[in-house]
Amino acid sequence: MTVVGNKYTVIAFRVTRAGPLALLQDAGRFGVRRLGVTQGGPADVHGWAWANRLAGNAWGTAALEITFGGLHLVAERDLTVAVAGADLGATLEGEPLALWRPVRIREGQTLVFATPVNGLRAYLAVAGGFRAEPVLGSVSCVVREGLGGFDTRGSKLAEGDRLAVGEGSGESVAERGMPETARIDYRQPARLSLLPGAQVGEFTGTSLYRAFNAAWRVDDRADRMGVRLTGPRLQCRLASMISEGIGLGAVQVPPDGQPIALLNDRQTIGGYPRLGALTPLAASRLAQCLPGQEVHLVAASREHALDEHRHFLASVGKG
To answer: What pTM was estimated for this model as a whole?
Structure first.
């Protein structure tokens, strides 16, 4: 896949080594779930939004989501970039790359993402934004559905790909400050805010106590569709139910009693009972957890969730 055309002829990077999963993500694909098309977008909206903010981009600008690392990029021109989210041991010309701040890259320099040091997914934003042809109103890459990405067919990055950016991406961007509290240590046990709802009243009292008081572990069965949690077995009195629409962060409990938190590439409907839904920032935090990591579910009110999200949007320049 090579991205060259009349509209997108400004090339930012050439891929010399492709990691296991590097995907183009804008804010997501909305208004199409009635067609069975999922949302896509950044698994960690917090890291993605801060990378764009630090690179001087507006909300919704496409950035690279890099999972696990193993990606080597060579700059095809002078660029200003920012990397936020996970620390994947990124280096520029062999020297550690500064995270959570704008960085100037010169033509010919090599940017390498190695292996996870702190967190799972890093976000690389470039001033001017990565560019590709939208599909159903978004460039977000969903591999399972074959939609979006640099080739419009949902392909992850491969060796030899050339990545296009918007005009003006070579211009410098004044350094932008950010609160220290916005940086997250992903190695710490995660406290995940959950809005109780849906079928929460159908779970036994013992199960509800365990759900919100036991420590859960992230299972190795985790991807952009969802994350399975392992811990005490939860029991629901519902023997069966009609499938319902599934939103971001929905926590389903299948018959084995082990919750599954659904993320950006989830299916659009599901028939398992739900405890409720993680807030968007809680879903983002979960997306940065490695297998075996400890997490805790914390019941949250609608008012708390709204206040938290409004504060986040204001901090990254949206709204």
So the answer is: 0.94
